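My hope is that you will study the protein record below before we discuss the fold together.
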Amino acid sequence: MMQLRSRTTLVGGLVLGAVGIAVLWGAGVDFPVAVPPGLVILLVGATIVATVRARWAAGLGCALGLFVLVGFLVSPTGIENISGDHGADVAVGQAIQVLGVVIAAVSGGLLVLRRA
């Protein structure tokens, strides 16, 4: 039962991160291509974690959360976005994304450690 909740939390974190990116996109944040790559990456990752019951899948979910979190931290607009410099809608979207990927990184890491 504990693993199911952890996997569900991991999937939920990845989906929440994708929702945050969708909010950013809807708020008018420019992305390098028509559809934000992070949105697609997180949703594909959530699908893999939800359907593959292997330790590496939980590790993948953790890695994706960390990847997007690092992207936020190194982005020249990440902190500006979350602080509200670009509007409340952008700040909310950025906060949702960061919350989701932190949940994914932590829950994925814990799931991998528990299955070790």
Q: What stands out?
A: The radius of gyration is 14 Å.
